[in-house]
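Deliverable D5.2: sample structural annotation.
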Amino acid sequence: MRLFVGLGNPGDKYAGNRHNIGFMALDRIAEDHGFTPWRSKFQGEVSEGKFGSDKVILLKPMTFMNKSGQSVGEAMRFYKLDSTDITVLHDELDLAPGKCRVKAGGGHAGHNGLRSIHQHIGPHYDRVRLGIGHPGHKDAVAGYVLRDFAKADQEWLDDLMRGISDGAEHLARDDGGKFMNAVALRVAPPRSSNSKPKPKPAPAPKAAEPEPVEDKSPLQKLMDKFR
């Protein structure tokens, strides 16, 4: 069994925020793969499903970001999981918008949701870091993550969500490589082999053949007159 945790803040006010990209990812997985309807449990919302024989629990903590660990710890204890059975999907300031990276363990890098999870279950859990870019100055971070994605972000955001959903079964099997390949096929798809080739330039017109030059002698010309 795997526990996928998406980080965000509860309520319509925050639904479109950059900070809520973890919630968005789980919503897409649940919708695309026919998981159960969301229900309240573990101070959060839970949905269940399977990829083949692999059972996956989706958890969106409803405790607000800086207390996410309370919900995650409660779910981990209930299902008798180890922290290494947990994958947390969260926003990442240090990655460009649309980039995605898988990481096992490590620090929280000042992320309030991860900091809380560290406090409740320790640092030994997997993460899917979802790039949202950086506003450029640390004083602008709070306002930046709590603002909605811009309209210009919607195309790459949708591609990223589709890629995460496509790769979710590989994530459930702890195959980060295949998961990342699935994301890349959506975010940066290869050029289609069916694309039309560039038209070839028209061939240059042939140069006009030179007029034939008459090279008969005066005697031959005179003889021709009497033929």
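Annotation notes: The helical segments are 21-32, 68-78, 112-121, 141-145, 154-172, 176-187, 218-225. DSSP finds seven helices and seven strands in the chain.
The annotation will be released with the project's public dataset once the embargo ends.
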